[in-house]
Amino acid sequence: MPDKTPYLDTFARDNLPPRELWPEMDFSVLPELNYAESFNCAAELLDRFVAAGGGDRIVFRGPGGVWRYGKLLEQANRIANVLTGEFGLRPGNRVLLRGPNHPMLAACWFAVVKAGGICVSTMPLLRSRELSYIAEKAEIRLAVCDRRWAGELETARVRTPQLEQVAYFNCEEELKGRPSLEAMAAEMPDTFENVPTRADDVAMIAFTSGTTGQAKGTVHFHRDVMAACDCFPRSTLKAGPDDIFIGTPPLAFTFGLGGLLLFPIRAGASVVLLESATPESLLQAMADEKATVCFTAPTMFRAMTPLAGDYDLGALTKCVSAGETLPLSVYQGWEAATGVRIIDGLGTTELLHIFIAAAGDDIRPGATGKPIPGYQAQVVDTGGQALPPGTPGLLAVRGPTGCRYLDDAERQKQYVQHGWNLTGDLYVMDEDGYFWYQSRADDMIVSAGYNISGAEIEDVLLEHPSVKECGVVGVPDPERGQIVKAFVVLNDPSPDEAATAIELQDFVKQEIAPYKYPRAIAFLDALPRTETGKLQRFRLREMG
Known about the structure:
The radius of gyration is 23 Å and the shape is globular. It is α/β, with parallel strands linked by helices. A hairpin with a 5-residue loop joins strand 7 (about 200-210) and strand 8 (about 215-220). It has a domain at about 445-544: GMP Synthetase, Chain A, domain 3 (2-Layer Sandwich). It starts with 10 loop residues before the first helix and ends with a helix. About 30% of the residues lie in helices and about 25% in strands. It has 17 helices and 26 strands.
């Protein structure tokens, strides 16, 4: 099919994996997934709702102020005019987004997509080396950033000359010789002619860490965004226009992008955007705003449980947990404290959002759930053959969304096999079709909802002059599920291992996102290795 979109930049399309390596994706299984060949998902979500009379409804609440749908549309249009006019954004260009959960960041996401650009949202905690890698991998020349998060980005720009331009928002004055994005937007028209993208044009690239230590760019089309909005929220969450969403995951995390932006807007609902939250402040905001739907990780539900009785959570009806498996004790504790049953959702960045879950009376405590309408799942052996109920194996999934790695055919071959997405999780399916999590099949560390690559942390530690070699694994932790533990061999033994451990932890925090740092460090004389020199990570895990 010829490319009819007026793309001036075909980088993302050119760096998709070969078509024969894509998973099987079926849009015929649900009538709501029968999308037109050409549409812009930002316009489908936002413009269409306003045109239907929803402009006066509240979309954002919280510290960033009250925004109505009409204001969001106008601001997104103004920003799109700035990006295309002042910064030369053209269809297909990638745009790095950086900042906390804030209405302006949301408006920028819609502006980029309306202009035919490709959003590359980045976690606020990422450091300059991580931002540089993403900018280089996705060949990004333009960033849009909350000025409070300018430091690491400016350092990344020194490392990455191709990152030529930055538009800053939340500025009270000029920064780097330019007015704030808000000031420039105020001078622009509040209408914008949306780029007529196709359903299979790229709308976003979401980066996720893998076990190799290098972040992977997962490519998602306009129809993928809509499919995520029309599967889990419609069939399982069953959100409506009177719902008020709240939660903690960053918009840069696909769990947060869906739960705290796309899903509420698809339902015509509103969302409380919090830049950061403690258990107490999240509970207070839930009570103050009368939130009905909460998206967060098991770690936060666990921390909120003993405090919940001190707050009025009478409006809360639905809770969604994702990012890591939901322990049965957390589920039971939260239900006892609030009367609300947590929906345990399994999703991956590769598939964009949740594909296995259960809600209400369909919840089986301790199980993740069943494939939601639109998706299929099975447990397979290493050869891709389906295993009978009760037998542990690899989780394989397929549906209307699927894995497409940016410029990484080798990794694509590992994640997609026989037309199925292999998530890297070990599961058991019972006789009733419920899926029960067993463990990770690879070396990914899942801590407090974050996927952390041990290899990435090893690379950083090895840059420290005192470190001779190291190995990093996840070890069990009652609060975070797992924590990162580093086993380190020093060039010279340290007389004060406790001080050296703190020094190494601080070093890692300076180089990469702080949530990745090793919370425990053990010093060894040598690492356990095979006869061929391979590190025996299972031995490190046994050491705990």
